[in-house]
Amino acid sequence: MARPRTTPRTVEHPELSEVTLQQALEALADPVRRMVVCQLTQAGGEKGCGTFDTPVSDSTLTHHFNVLREAGVIRQHYRGTTKLNSLRTEEMEARFPGLLPAVVTAADAEA
Amino acid sequence: MARPRTTPRTVEHPELSEVTLQQALEALADPVRRMVVCQLTQAGGEKGCGTFDTPVSDSTLTHHFNVLREAGVIRQHYRGTTKLNSLRTEEMEARFPGLLPAVVTAADAEA
DNA sequence: CTGAAGGTTCGATGACGGTCGTACTATGAA
DNA sequence: TTCATAGTACGACCGTCATCGAACCTTCAG
Fold first, then answer.
1. Does pTM surpass 0.85?
2. Which residue among A21, A103, A106 sits closest to B106, beta carbon to beta carbon?
């Protein structure tokens, strides 16, 4: 009944129609962010921020998640203290047909 | 008969197998370079360096052509004083399937 | 030979972005 | 209430890159 002491944590997501190709390509042009995308693809669903294998610090990783979210690549929401991430696969496909699959395929092939 | 006073101008091109996804994405992530790629797609063949419509200076444009060439996106060769550019479409498709078409399609759709 | 057109090279500059550590907030468990 | 966990915000640092102008090189036409 009681309102929480503070507002629940929410996350802003852009409409894919508002996202530019420039944003999408810049987002995907960073190796750490591609790691995130690939691991998310492999997971096949949601994945907590802390469960990614990357070579950077937590605060840097937060930055990368923000970039990916603002580029429309991922969706984020809280569950308790955990922040869950998932790919906006269908929306990305509608906005930039073939782009995400091409990048993920090439990235996987390289690794 | 006489040998030219100086060696003819040649241009070095990487094998696509030596090009990384990182290079390709960085090359395509710049708006001026995407203009070049799109205008080259529209031309459907070769196009002289001076015939591109971009907002930057000649020397900057030279830089962008170098980046695109080293990323395996374009091929360049001289004819007289003119340098001709063409897309390495098939090779790019073999190395990064779907990537170039996806970017060009999205770029054209945005414009 | 001379001039002009087409590109390149070089150095400087300025902006942007990835990185980190530290301090902080929010949530849930004890 | 207290503590631990998960992640964020902020500021600083630093390297990289897009950009330019000026000087230069190469080729072809007179």
1. yes
2. A21
